[in-house]
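retry 2 of 3: previous attempt timed out while embedding zinc ion. Reduced batch size to 1 and resubmitted. Inputs unchanged:
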Amino acid sequence: MPSLVLSRLVATLFILLVLCRGTEPAVASSNETEAYQLYQQAVALRKANRPVEALNCLNKVLVLKPDWQTYHFIGLLYMEMKRYREAFSPLARAYGLAPAESSTVASAAECYYLLKDPDNAIALCTKYLAKYKTGDSIGTIWQTLGRCYAQKKQFAQSLDAFRNSLKADPTDDFTWQAMCGDLSSDDAAAPQFKSVAPEFLKRFPNDSNAQYYKARLQALDYSQARNRFEDEAVARSKANHQDNVDAFVIVPPQFGGRVSPRFLAIVRQTVHGIPKTIWEPLYAYGYRVHVVPHVVDDFTDRDCNPEDQPRGYKKGATYKNVPALAMPHRKVLIVAQNYLNDEGKEETMKDPDHAMCHELGHAYDEYLGFLSKKMNLSEKYDGFSQSKAFAAAYESDAKKIAGKERETFSYYLQSGKAGQEELFANLFVFLWDNQLVEPGSHDDMTRAKFSNALKSISEARSLDPEYIRLRDLYDSHVKQYK
Ligand SMILES: [Zn+2]
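retry 2 succeeded.
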């Protein structure tokens, strides 16, 4: 902040001039009178922005009366001319004549600071402060120390020094400005900036930087929240792999090499597109998505016969015609790269989006059943689709469907628990994505026809404590953006 530095210099200079007047001898000798006049001439020349001529005057003063004030004045003139290295010699002479004089030390430290040599400035200031606790420029010395530590990115020390400066000189607005300016310049200084910026804004609401500081405070709050959020996500991911799509969606080892990496990536991408509040609880609960060559490849002794007719499928169809399948008893969702189409020809799944969401729906249905038992709800069920609430909603929707429409929605009107389960799985996607289906499509009509069932699913979701936890976390995260 060059303009602030300059104003500091000007201020220092005025202090010096006041000091010099204060030390005028009571009875002036002729040398002293001449020295005084030359000194005043130098002051006037400096004011007239003629520093070189002022220097000439002061060199004459030195011959007559070599006191520390004159050496200091010379040092300050070099500083004003930005000839910082040349300032050291006269400042050192001033310091030699008056080592307790704080303004000399403050000026020399300022030179080091401006030469981007904070180490020497800090050494000089600390040496002085160890010896002297008071002095006209003690606040300035602390403040220079604050700026030098900031230059070294040692922001805790910087803040301490600035605070000491304000203790020594509470009226120095420049210290406030320098402090907030320096501490706002680096993310590493965020804690220090946050501890002083609100006070600054209270004191200087109309400062030219006030708007910027306000925005920065908000940004830091946001980034802190984001960091908390990310830290937690990382911790969760490390502890339970809960944040890891790659661990959720896997190719079981026995199918290695038989599933294309591209297809696996597409399925994982699909899960990435689904809110974590949906799939993370399932993952934590133990579900895994198996990406396999064909659905039946992943069948075990615990599963049904691959040659059986899957429910809701046409006569003659087998599980070889199924592209994706939920196996709640194994906590497995199978997504196949290939399946047989209606003509019995092998097809590759192009877009696993719908299948993925549907099978996740089955898993979530079963998960809500698990929660009903775990949370000891008054009604316990194997799947939410079998609960009294959902059944009532389903019935009220289903009974309005008549005639030809019963054929259209036959998949959801299957007898037993199948109809309710399939409806739950299909409506599930509408919990987060109303854009997913084409307007007027079968899924879209299903949504409209089974509006009570959909409402019931929305309500069921709030049974999930993990969902609530994640939702709150995400909500607070999202709020930071607004
Ligand atoms: Zn299904």
